[in-house]
Design brief:
Layout lengths: L16 H7 L7 E3 L6 H6 L3 E5 L3 H10 L2 H17 L2 H8 L12 H14 L28 H13 L1 E5 L3 H4 L8 E4 L22 H16 L3 E7 L2 H6 L4 E9 L9 E9 L2
Length: 276
């Protein structure tokens, strides 16, 4: 493992890394990941040139801090302050910050360290927001919290400042506008839900629905026609199989343990779809 994610993220791909790498193209030019999330595959590959994107602003604060020397130092100092001050009462004080009127004006290092601290100290390491976009996971009731691994964090910081990485925040279609023949795009969107299970999609206040799955499938086809290598992960549902029936569909088993609802945990069938 070159490096590991800074935060635990629903739908994270660490357990499927070997399979994903096995199914990747042998060679490619620029790497694109429009739903980067925790970045497990990105940090395993550490491509020299990459474009990453996510609609979660708090997550992007972390990545932008990793890519800036000054903000990185400030983020680390704040994480150490969180560790020293950690308690049940302190957790809820920090959790409530995004309800304050000036939260959007907080410096990115302050927002980034808050997200990491909450992720490490909340129940089950779950990142979840309500319909207003406020973080609402309860405390994990830990006496002590280690917010980061120093060696891993420095490895990631060095990677971000020494590589050609573009960090975007917006719709997935915009994230791959510059993709061209020979590039590689990995899509890991919010999954299409199973009919009999609750599927976690509360990464942001905006839901990713069936129409978005169709839009994504259309984009997959457009990139395919341009000669771009495309790989996509999703649940093994009827809709996903119908949308990608002309492509290579590889069924894999994964274990999901991060959902706050027990019905959304356990062994599930996922698919890794490729156009090559």
């Amino acid at each position: 493992m070159n490096a590991k994610p800074v935060v635990k993220w629903a739908g994270g791909k660490r357990q499927l890394i070997d399979k994903l790498i096995e199914l990747m193209p042998d060679e490619y030019d620029h790497y694109f990941e429009p739903f980067v999330g925790g970045g497990a595959l990105l940090f395993e590959l550490m491509p020299e040139n990459a474009t990453i994107n996510d609609v979660n602003e708090e997550l992007l604060c972390i990545y932008n801090c990793l890519a800036d020397k000054d903000d990185f130092k400030l983020m680390i100092n704040e994480l150490e302050n969180h560790e020293k001050n950690h308690s049940e009462k302190y957790f809820y004080q920090i959790r409530e910050l995004d309800r304050t009127p000036d939260y959007q004006n907080f410096p990115i290092w302050k927002r980034a360290s808050r997200t990491i601290y909450l992720n490490k100290s909340c129940f089950n390491g779950l990142y979840r927001v309500n319909s207003k976009g406020y973080f609402n996971v309860p405390s994990g009731k830990k006496k002590k919290v280690q917010t980061y691994d120093k060696v891993n964090m420095l490895k990631l910081h060095n990677y971000f400042i020494n590589s050609g990485i573009t960090i975007l925040s917006g719709d997935f279609t915009k994230a791959v506008e510059k993709a061209q023949r020979g590039d590689f795009v990995y899509f890991d969107p919010p999954y299409d839900p199973f009919d009999d299970k609750d599927t976690f999609t509360s990464y942001t206040k905006f839901n990713f629905n069936k129409d978005d799955q169709v839009r994504l499938a259309d984009l997959f086809k457009e990139l395919d026609n341009k000669g771009v290598y495309v790989m996509l992960s999703n649940h093994n549902t009827k809709l996903i199989n119908e949308l990608y029936d002309n492509y290579n569909i590889n069924v894999v088993n994964a274990k999901r343990m991060i959902n706050s609802n027990a019905k959304g945990r356990g062994n599930v069938e996922e698919v890794i779809i490729t156009n090559y």
